[in-house]
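hiii so my PI (J.) wants the whole complex modelled not just the main chain, which honestly fair. so below is everything: two entries, each one labled with what it is. i double checked the lines twice but i was tired so who knows lol
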Amino acid sequence: GNSVTQMEGPVTLSEEAFLTINCTYTATGYPSLFWYVQYPGEGLQLLLKATKADDKGSNKGFEATYRKETTSFHLEKGSVQVSDSAVYFCALRPGSGNTGKLIFGQGTTLQVKP
Amino acid sequence: EAGVTQFPSHSVIEKGQTVTLRCDPISGHDNLYWYRRVMGKEIKFLLHFVKESKQDESGMPNNRFLAERTGGTYSTLKVQPAELEDSGVYFCASSPLAGGPTETQYFGPGTRLLVL
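here's the output for the full assembly
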């Protein structure tokens, strides 16, 4: 079946530190991969996406590369800011079938301290 | 352009009562999804509407949950009777019909439901 596994949180970093949030997936076919972010008090927002192997999604200084050989889509940022504090969700959309549903990981809480 | 809105933002009810959640998608979006996050775990898919039709309801936990989208605009999700394990955050998302496999789903802020 399809599933997404994220690293356990919370992750606490100092401002300007390097961030990696690991995400691995299990899927049949060729899924699309997403990172969503939920800032305090807000809904989920799409952060970035990749639709095929070796694609790199990027936005707001965040990057993630679709690695089919390791079934991973790790999120990285070179220098985090306090405003990046949020919950980050990795998700996939199955590549087979006619479904549009997203399958999410459990979320990783990031706290960035000044 | 207004985003996806959900009402209420919070609801606290007692076990056995009924609660109805509402979602207003972005205008013109034919796809509407319901998801749920329970106890800080992963967000799980509940169901998917295309206009007023249920495209996929494989994630609905049991027959205490009833979703409707009359007229293909807003949607309601009714829980009757509510149980303790129904507590969580219910998210709604919408997207245009022709988005295909790379469509972006736009999420609402969620309704936080607590069943006591």
